[in-house]
Design brief:
This protein has 86 residues and is an alpha+beta fold. The protein has one domain. Helices cover 44% and strands 12% of the residues. It has a two-stranded antiparallel sheet. The termini are far apart.
């Protein structure tokens, strides 16, 4: 799941999103057989399920903290690029 976390910078560098995206490995290992759509496990961790899986701690906050230098450099590079192009 850690490999699914990506930083996306908005057009013009106005914003940055840090969030998990579904990887190809997640698609292959789907548990949803009835509708053939892959389950997105990070969503279960955040929101829980009707079947009793309780929401967990904010794993995205921990991941952001652990990768903060990478995130900061990505945001800084996008801002610099936007200022040069703007």
């Amino acid at each position: 799941m850690a490999r699914s976390i990506k930083v996306t910078v908005g057009s013009g560098g106005g914003y940055a999103k840090v969030m998990p995206y579904m990887t190809e490995e997640m698609r292959r290992n789907t548990t949803s057989k009835k509708d053939k759509k892959p389950d997105f496990y990070p969503a279960y961790l955040v929101y829980g399920t009707k079947r009793g899986l309780k929401p967990r701690k904010d794993f995205m906050g921990a991941a952001l903290f652990n990768r903060r230098s990478f995130v900061r450099s990505a945001i800084n590079a996008a801002l610099k690029k936007a200022l040069v192009e703007g």
